[in-house]
Structures are given as C-alpha cells and as structure tokens.
Amino acid sequence: MWEKGAQHTHCVVLVLSVLDGESLQRRFFNKLRDVCSEWQLQLPPLRPLERFLLVSIHAIRNARRKMEDRHVLLPEFNQLFGLSDGVDRAYFAVFDGHGGVDAANYSATHLHVNVGLHEEIVKNPAEALKCSFQKTDEMFLFKAKREKLRSGTTGVSALIVGNQLHIAWLGDSQVMLVQQGKAVTLMEPHKPEREDERARIETLGGCVTYMDCWRVNGTLAVSRAIGDICQKPYVSGAADGDSFELTGSEDYLLLACDGFFDAIKPCEVVDLVLDHLMQTKGVGLKAAERLVAAAKENGSSDNITVLVVFLRDPQDILADCLRDPKGLGADDDAQSSPFSFLGCEAAATQ
Question: Order of strands across the sheet with 304-310?
Fold first, then answer.
C-alpha cells in the first residue's frame, strides 16, 4: 500500500516538475533567443511570390482626438499559416474604429487568423474570408459583454489567391481597383440610407433617421460593423463579399476608410497616383502618402488610412499611361471587363 502511495506521489511531483511555469518560460525564451539570433545572421529562405506586389501604406490621426484606424498587410500569408500547396496568397485589410479602439485592435489581430485557420481556406477562400468577419464579430461581442466594451469598427479586406481576388467588407471602408488606368468599383458600402439596409433595419424594429447624415437608431452612420454590442442586431456583423479573376492587366488595389473616400472620388485616385508616379519617375512607395494628403486638403478631418497594393510595377504603369494618355477609349474594352467602370463627372460632360 505504501509503495503504491509513494509511486503516486512520485508521479505527481514529476508532473508538477514538467509543468513548472518558471522553467517552461525559461526554456521558451531561450529557444526564442536562439531562433532570433539565427535569423539575425540569415533569414530562412521564403518562396518568392509569382505575382508582383508592392505595398504603399500611410495613415494619419488628422483632426480627431484619437487614431482609431488600424491596418494589416500580410504578403507572406502562406508562411504565417504553414500553407505549402504552391498557391500564392496575400492578405490586406483596413479597419476604421468608432467609439474607441478596442474593436479595431481586436479585428486587426484576429480576423486574418480566423481566415488562415478556416477549414475552407484552401478549397473556398471566398467563404473563409466572408465567414471570418462573422466569427470575429461573435468573438469580440463575447469579449465586449465580459469587459463592458461598446466600440465597433468597419472593415474591408482583400485576399489574393493565385489569380483570384476575394474581398469582404462591413460598413463604409472600401476597396477599389484600377485596371489599365481606369477606376473600377468592386463593392457598395453598407450605409443606413441604402434601400436594402434600411428595410433590414426596420424589419428588425429599428429605425433610420437623418441627423446631419443618415444614422441607425439616431446613432451610427454605418449599418454593419464588428462590435457595437448595444446596436446589435440592427448593426449587422454579417459581411458581404465578392470574387474576381485577375487577368494581369490590373494596376493596383486601394483599400481605405471613409475618411478618404468621403473626400476623394475613385476617378480622382487615378489622376493623383499617376501624377505622383510622374513626379517620382515611377517610384510608388509614397503613393499612399500623396493620396492621404489630397484627402486632407479636400477637407477630410477624420482619421485617414490608405493602403495601395501595386499589382504591376509602377514604372510599367507610368510607361503605359505616357504611351497612351487616353487609356481605354473603346467601349468594347469596357464592356468586356468583368468589372463596372466608374467615370469622372468631368469626363461625362465632355
């Protein structure tokens, strides 16, 4: 009997020794230090992306008391989640928080993780991206209820998988595309005055009223968002999404919050970026900075975040525009595009 008891005690001591927090912590940080030391001498080789990607990002607090925007760029998405099927993946996102930074911080930290760990990430990445917004909203609402958080955030994300572009969004942050010098609309933001959004809100028992702008229940100027626990279910956490084929003729993607799009029209983006490339002789690294400055000059007082993802070398984009200043002039070309082209008002009056 004593022998069994002694053996049991020995096992308990052994388990406690294995799970000793201080020892485990020491081993972990020693291993981390060794890995960092190795990587400082030489980073592990990464599989080069087949697609050209150059990212320009700029964000400012502007005239607001706090900076509530957040952004994420993961051109090495595969390496982060151990995906080794030979298909290139890159992820980009912009979040525009309101009522505090908690929801934006949480979304910027967790949304891409939910995407990367989703069971459909390989077979159906569009579904993985769209569903991950809903899951992130549910996760944050649990945290918000526990910690009495009332903030929310809009969000827009783009996931490039091979030659496919997948997008998903909540609220009025937006993603647009420029293809062969033409602005292209990919989505419609979630605003309370949209007929379908107003109908959804009123069916649930809420209301849409005008108070300097259209608002849900007289408060929020967006009809979908992550968080906003006090406005659920009127402010929905269900994202919209869409997918497009990339043909190689696309110049760049642009993701930005409403602080940018309220001041700059999509067709103006094309002129601003082209002017910047002409001034810099085809160097696009500060293109986002130029766009943010233009939005501020046009009267935006909100936080402004702009993320430009060049899908072609900016020098090639500049060369093509200089070679053909009118860009796509043929209606046949526009009609054959899978996208919907936006035209400048000035062009429409000519």
Answer: 54-60, 304-310, 250-256, 174-179, 182-185, 340-341
The percent of the chain in helix, strand and coil, each rounded to the nearest 5, is: 40, 25, 35
With cut-offs at 50, 70 and 90, classify the pLDDT of residue 279: very high
- How large is the C-alpha radius of gyration of the chain? 24
Question: CA 83, CA 14: separation in Å to the nearest integer?
Answer: 37
pTM of the model: 0.84
Cβ-contact 220, 153 below 8 angstroms: no
How many angstroms separate the CA atoms of 188 and 195, rounded?
A: 12
Among the listed residues 162, 313, 228, 226, the one whose alpha carbon sits nearest the alpha carbon of residue 216: 228
Q: At what angle do helices 266-280 and 314-323 cross, to 10 degrees?
A: 100
Q: Does residue 333 register a pLDDT over 50?
A: no
Residue type, 189: P
Residue 25's pLDDT band, with cuts at 50, 70 and 90, is confident
Structure token pair of residue 250: 């696309």
pLDDT greater than 50 at residue 168? yes
